[in-house]
């Protein structure tokens, strides 16, 4: 199974980039991970929030194929423990999902068209985090999930 991590905007803070790179490097032992960073919209001052979400949706949906299993990282999504997330990933792999795409939207969330395309929504926490930090938290949790699946000692219960 291939995993794609699709984000609107680039990770800018060096300490976050370093942390993400650390987990991406570790993940190479378990899965093929593709990170796609879409450019943030430019000249958005004249656009409403809904117009921005619509334009971002066009960019997001262009990167998703009809057979991809799409999971939005969304505050209204299901909340899973690390063990439950590992079971979720494992179930998708066993269920012959060829590519699972995890998506982080822009600052105003997702357009209705992206919600309509999504197979699932996942919340990383009831708290709100910056989109930059979500990238680090997600890559760490993905790594943790694979160590749980493989029975490796990274995760402590």
Automatic annotation (TrEMBL):
State the similarity comment. Belongs to the RNA methyltransferase RlmH family.
Grouped into one coarse class, the protein's main location is cytoplasm
- Organism source for this protein? Mucilaginibacter xinganensis
The record describes the protein's role as:
Specifically methylates the pseudouridine at position 1915 (m3Psi1915) in 23S rRNA.
- What EC number(s) does its UniProt record assign? 2.1.1.177
Q: What is this protein called?
A: Ribosomal RNA large subunit methyltransferase H
Note whether Cytoplasm occurs among the keywords.
Answer: yes
Extract the CDD domains matched here.
RlmH-like
Q: What class of enzyme is it?
A: transferase
Q: How does it assemble?
A: Homodimer.
């Amino acid at each position: 199974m291939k995993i794609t991590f699709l984000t609107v905007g680039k990770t800018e803070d060096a300490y976050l980039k370093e942390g993400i790179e650390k987990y991406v490097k570790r993940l190479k032992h378990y899965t093929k991970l593709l990170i796609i960073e879409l450019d943030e919209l430019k000249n958005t001052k004249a656009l409403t929030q809904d117009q921005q979400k619509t334009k971002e949706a066009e960019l997001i949906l262009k990167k998703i194929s009809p057979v991809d299993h799409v999971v939005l990282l969304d505050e209204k999504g299901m909340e899973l423990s690390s063990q439950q997330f590992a079971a979720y990933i494992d179930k998708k792999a066993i269920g012959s999902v060829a590519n699972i795409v995890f998506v982080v939207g822009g600052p105003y969330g997702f357009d209705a068209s992206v919600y309509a395309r999504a197979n699932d929504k996942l919340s990383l926490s009831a708290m709100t985090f910056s989109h930059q930090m979500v990238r680090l938290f997600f890559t760490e949790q993905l790594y943790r999930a694979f160590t749980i699946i493989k029975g490796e000692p990274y995760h402590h219960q």
